[in-house]
TrEMBL record:
It comes from Candidatus Methylomirabilis lanthanidiphila. One of its GO terms (molecular function) is ATP binding. This is ABC transporter. InterPro entries: AAA+_ATPase, ABC_SmlMolc_Importer, ABC_transporter-like_ATP-bd, ABC_transporter-like_CS, ABC_transpr_FbpC, Mo/tungstate-bd_C_term_dom, P-loop_NTPase, Transp-assoc_OB_typ2. Residues 31-265 form the ABC transporter domain.
Length: 377
């Protein structure tokens, strides 16, 4: 494939998969955030704590984390709705926040899609999209509105009012309005939170496709890890205002940098282990010391439910406590002889009744360990 490089994912345990990475010719950086912090409550609440990252042209970044982790505040700092206490923010190579420099939102070349969409109820679809184009000439404005509505698939609904649209259509209008002025960056704040489950899944694909077609650089915030993985090129996981890890979705899931990231981006159990040479001894058996950890080190080994097989056997020493049918699979909770509980994901047609005695086998494709402070080793 000309001009691109292919990264084999055997680095993280998936030799049969490959992902096309960024072009060999580096793309220009559009957003640069360096050591940005923000406090509230007279300085008592640290909302954003020394966050740094950059986003290249055409890239989509997801800021992921629980409520109160600082992701929306970070977005508002980039948009210009909040003033950072320290640090610097650049957009398109231009300083927009640093020391005595602070450009207001309208001067930053940023489009914003709010969680509530913030459409004007008394304006039609066309008039909502035109709102950010008031400085454009008549013909230029009409052409750009037509392009934006065609891009989001609403060309035939330009005369409707917001209350006459579905939630998904309202979101498309908000996105068209943000894209119409051709901003350098589009920021999306929990864009799918007001939609039902089926609509959310569809809109994830649609919004990603629209942003790709427009070649737009975008940042969106979400607490939904599946949402982040589906849409984003890069995912940044925030915890108490700090950026714990920034990486490709596959790396975030398979090689989390901390125990917090491991737990937040997917179900995970942690079992004690002792490093002994080229192996790690655990209650689930011997696992390979793939990272060359120092011997004698006590660690916690991350085990995901799909790493665990269950074999009904009266000679086993583990007991199935519960089964949760989840449609595509069954999630089992199993008690080990030590009393520790772990989880196993099995095919939906494979039913093991609670109370059954089983042999537990761990088959992790790669072994991720954490020290007593929850830092990946």
């Amino acid at each position: 494939m000309a001009g691109t490089k292919v990264i084999q994912l055997e680095q993280i345990g998936h030799p049969k998969r490959a992902r096309v990475a960024q072009s060999l010719s580096p793309r220009p950086t559009v957003i640069r955030v360096e050591h940005v912090s923000k406090r509230y409550g007279g300085g008592s609440v640290m909302a954003v704590d020394g966050v740094s990252f950059s986003v290249d042209k055409g890239e989509i970044l997801a800021l992921l984390g629980p409520s109160g982790c600082g992701k929306t505040t970070t977005l508002r700092l980039i948009a210009g709705f909040e003033v950072p206490d320290c640090g610097r923010i650049e957009i398109g190579g231009r300083m927009v926040a640093h020391d005595n420099i602070f450009l207001p939102p309208e001067q930053r070349g940023v489009g914003m899609v709010f969680q509530s969409y913030a459409l004007f109820p008394h304006l039609t679809v066309l008039e909502n999209v035109a709102f950010g184009l008031r400085q454009w000439s008549g013909e230029q404005q009409r052409n750009r509105i037509a392009e934006a509505l065609d891009l989001v698939g609403l060309a035939k609904l330009e005369g409707r009012y917001p209350h006459e649209l579905s939630g998904g259509q309202q979101q498309r209008v908000a996105l068209a309005r943000a894209l119409a002025p051709s901003p350098q960056v589009v920021l999306l704040d929990e864009p799918f939170s007001n939609l039902d489950a089926d609509m959310r899944a569809q809109m994830r694909e649609d919004v990603r496709s629209i942003l790709r077609q427009a070649g737009t650089t975008a940042i969106f915030v979400t607490h939904d890890q599946e949402e982040a993985f589906v849409i984003a090129d890069q995912v940044g996981v925030l915890n108490h205002g700090r950026l714990e890890q920034l990486d490709h979705p596959e790396a975030i899931y398979h090689t989390p940098a901390s125990r917090f990231v491991a737990q937040f981006v997917g179900s995970a159990d942690f079992i004690p282990g002792l490093v002994q040479g080229d192996r790690i001894t655990t209650e689930l058996g011997i696992l390979p010391n793939q990272r060359g950890l120092a011997g004698g080190q006590a660690v916690e080994v991350m085990i995901r439910p799909d790493d665990i097989d269950l074999i009904p056997d009266q000679a086993g020493k583990a007991i199935v406590l519960t089964r949760q049918f989840r449609g595509a699979d069954n999630l089992y909770c199993v008690r080990l002889p030590s009393g520790q509980k772990i989880h196993s994901s099995q095919d939906s047609t494979r039913i093991i009744e609670p109370g059954a005695v089983v042999v537990v086998k761990a088959n992790p494709t790669h072994v991720v360990c954490f020290d007593i402070n929850g830092v990946a080793q």
